[in-house]
Specification:
- The chain contains 6 helices and no strands.
- The protein has about 140 residues and is mainly α.
- The longest helix is centred in the N-terminal third of the chain and has 22 residues.
- It is rod-shaped.
- The relative contact order is 0.09.
Length: about 140
């Protein structure tokens, strides 16, 4: 009877070891001891980095021979990027006077002049620069 019991215990131990091996649990335990607890591993997937790219900007460069601080507003690209200004001067009021009275800057007045086809009547001095009577000499 002792031999049968020993054989049954051995068979049970071997069967338990095989079952635990199939489950991925540790197999190292001796008679009378519980199996060691399985350790837990944390796997972290790489997190993609977020890259913030600023929107492209248009930089206008003064024409050759013109100081950047003096007539940068004369660049066709800058003039073309300005919103259209609908002019509604009162009778006896010039477009330049109307622009100045409404708070438009000289560069905005220049853009309005360009958008309206560079009318000669906007240059009271006849030198090709618009609105100098309203804004002062700008060249």
């Amino acid at each position: 009877m002792r031999i049968v019991m020993r054989t049954l215990r051995t068979t049970a131990a071997v069967s338990a070891a095989l079952v635990l091996a199939g489950c991925g649990l540790p197999q190292t335990f001796s008679r009378g001891q519980a199996p060691a607890p399985a350790s837990t591993a944390t796997v972290t997937a790489p997190v993609p980095q977020t890259v913030v790219v600023p929107p492209p900007q248009t930089v206008y460069v003064a024409p050759k021979g013109v100081a950047a601080s003096s007539q940068w507003y004369a660049e066709p690209g800058w003039v073309g990027s300005q919103p259209w200004i609908t002019l509604t001067p009162a009778p006896g009021q010039t477009p330049c006077q109307w622009l100045r009275a409404r708070g438009y800057t000289y560069p905005q007045a220049y853009a309005a002049w360009a958008q309206n086809g560079y009318p000669a009547s906007w240059s009271a001095t006849g030198d090709g620069y618009p609105c100098q009577k309203s804004y002062g000499v700008q060249h």
